[in-house]
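Reviewers of the previous submission asked for a worked example of the structure-prediction workflow described in the proposal, so we include one complete record here. The input consisted solely of the amino acid sequence. No template or homolog information was supplied to the procedure at any stage.
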Amino acid sequence: MSLLVVGLSHRSAPVSVLERAALSADAQIKLLQDTVAAEPATEAAVLATCNRIELYADVDKFHAGVAELSTLLAQHSGVGLDELTPYLYVHYEDRAVHHLFSVACGLDSMVVGEGQILGQIKDSLARAQELHTAGKLLNDLFQQALRVGKRAHSETGIDRAGQSLVTFGLEQLAAGGDVRQWATGRTALVIGAGSMSSLAAATLARAGVAEVVVANRTFERAERLALLLEEQHGHGVAEDEDTAGVTARAVRMDAVADELTRADVVVSCTGATGLVLTAETVAQAVEGRTGAPAAELDGSGDGASTAGRTKAALPPTSVGTEENCPLDLAAVQPGFSLMGEAAVAGMDAATLEQHAAWAAGGAVDRRERRGPEADAELITALAVTAATVGRIPERRRPEPVAEIPRPAPAVFLLDLAMPRDIDAAVHRLAGVRLVDIESLAEASADAPMAADVDQVRRIVSDEVAAFGAAQRAAHITPTVVALRTMAADVVAGEIARLDGRLPGLDERQRSEIRQTVHRVVDKLLHAPTVRVKQLAAEPGGAGYADALRTLFDLDPETVAAVSRAGDSTEKKDRPA
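From that input alone, the workflow returned the following structure tokens.
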């Protein structure tokens, strides 16, 4: 079995696609269940955040795995496969491990170094464990990713390379000015009471806002957050002399329109599937604050809605077979093997042409029954992408038109939700400054990288190598155990035969003979088994297990039984 990840993120897809592909909690559960029910996969985990949707699986076939995971992502996200495919990236084996470890360290985040992703990875693992879709490989992988992320934050200054999305968003609202000076004395409206909204409320309180109003569909959650803010940041408990403390209160969602006319700063991050604030609602709030209608800036190029964009038709993905495939899939040994990357990396043009010809000769999509030529084209495109950059490059954005002068904002809006909570058309309203995920992505692309990033990259590379070695060494352990079990059975049989032939031996003599024979066998096996574990842990060492089974004529079922026993013990001992 081999590790495969198929996904899309802010680096590969525009926000308009990401927000349409966002998975609800129920959709994530169904996706996991359907993935492990599919033929190529035995384990699955979903990492879904506002900036990425990734499906991890332990698969037995690369091509069929890519096809199946891509199709399942399309089905459960509601975005058509032909539209979703250009934005998908594929990572396999050690590249998949490297990707997750980089994500855990914040290297792949919109704001480099943010630590919130660790909590999201932890939640992803917990969900897969609860649904019993995470086996040994994904449990080991995600737990190690959490350790690597914590190590990166404790041993380096990666935290200084970037801030949380909340802090970064507020800096963008302040237009590069001092956030505390900009926020002091303002009234803030926070829509939502989840983890991101709670972080935003606390950050605003620390920045010096005078009042935080919390709105949420479940009023009790809004009340709890408001009470917590009062306890931690209220009057009398300010963190320094320059901050007077904050007043916090909760309101119901139907009061949001009225609160908008009072709020200077609005942060929204809900799980709603539709818009929470329309352009019309914001325009009415601006009019309520200024006494004049909110004018629309025609031709502003920084926020036009992308809802009307269309995309050219694209070929579907294929459910290929491995028969006669020209790629070196035979190098992928059972268990974890760095040689598995040969399926997606280092391919030259001639190999790709062979691959396309092979796919055209026999691959037909079993769902849509599209032409095999289209299947070949898509598989080749996916392979090329994985072999070169690991993802589909973003399409170039059109050159922005000259920016029209804007009046000073009357209200500041920060939309951290995916899909978006605030209509993108608000960008065109005079007197409003809107920062959303899309504008944050553009701003963070130009942010300088800290020197600590290079150190974190070295940590990731070292941890990937260590993880691969551990997985390969673990793969040969059942074979070594089976060999020692066979040796013990041989010794027991020979001792029993000796007892029958020499019945006159006393117990002391029999004990000495047993101990001597066991010592001889242990000494003969010690050096080979230690060495084979060392060799198996090296890249390309997965074949040593097969060699050991062949040399000693070990029963494959005996080895499999040892593996099953180990898995059962691990599941039994795993904390709930």
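Residues 478 and 563 are 6 Å apart (CA to CA). We consider this example representative of the routine output the project will generate in years two and three.
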